[in-house]
Amino acid sequence: MMRNCTVSGMKRIEVGAFQAKTHLSQLLNEVQKGAVVTVTRRGKPVAVIRQEESASQAGALEAVRSLRTLCAARMPVAEIMDLRDEGRERLAR
């Protein structure tokens, strides 16, 4: 049985060991998107799968660099809003 919930904006998935083995690729895709997966055995948590810290930190640092570049360029607000929307669309995929 797979259960999903969102806590503080972070998606959490709880899944039994057998289903985790069967659907590992799908679960890894969810982790790559930022979800945290808890694997259980007979209802008791035995493991947590989460994105590696360096991967999430690298993404955050790149976002900060991009924002600093945008601020230095003094882009028109409409162009910034278009870029924001484009980023949201990418995250939704």
CATH topology of the largest domain: YefM-like fold
N-to-C SSE string, H for helix and E for strand = EEHHEEHH
Beta fraction: 25-35%
CATH homologous superfamily heading of the largest domain: YefM-like domain
Structural category is: alpha+beta
Q: How are the strands of the largest sheet arranged? A: 1-2-3-4
Overall structural domain count? 2
CATH architecture of the largest domain: 3-Layer(aba) Sandwich
Largest sheet: 4 strands, mixed
Based on CA atoms alone, the radius of gyration comes out at 18 Å
Number of distinct helices? 4
End-to-end Cα distance: 25 Å
Structure description:
With 93 residues, the protein is α+β, with helices and mostly antiparallel strands. It has 2 domains: 2-49, YefM-like fold (3-Layer(aba) Sandwich), CATH 3.40.1620; 53-92, no CATH class. It contains 4 helices and 4 strands, in the order E-E-H-H-E-E-H-H. It has helices at residues 17-22, 24-32, 53-73, 77-92, and strands at 2-7, 10-16, 36-41, 44-49. It has a 4-stranded mixed beta sheet. The radius of gyration is 18 Å and the shape is elongated. The two termini are 25 Å apart. The model has no long low-confidence stretch (mean pLDDT 84).
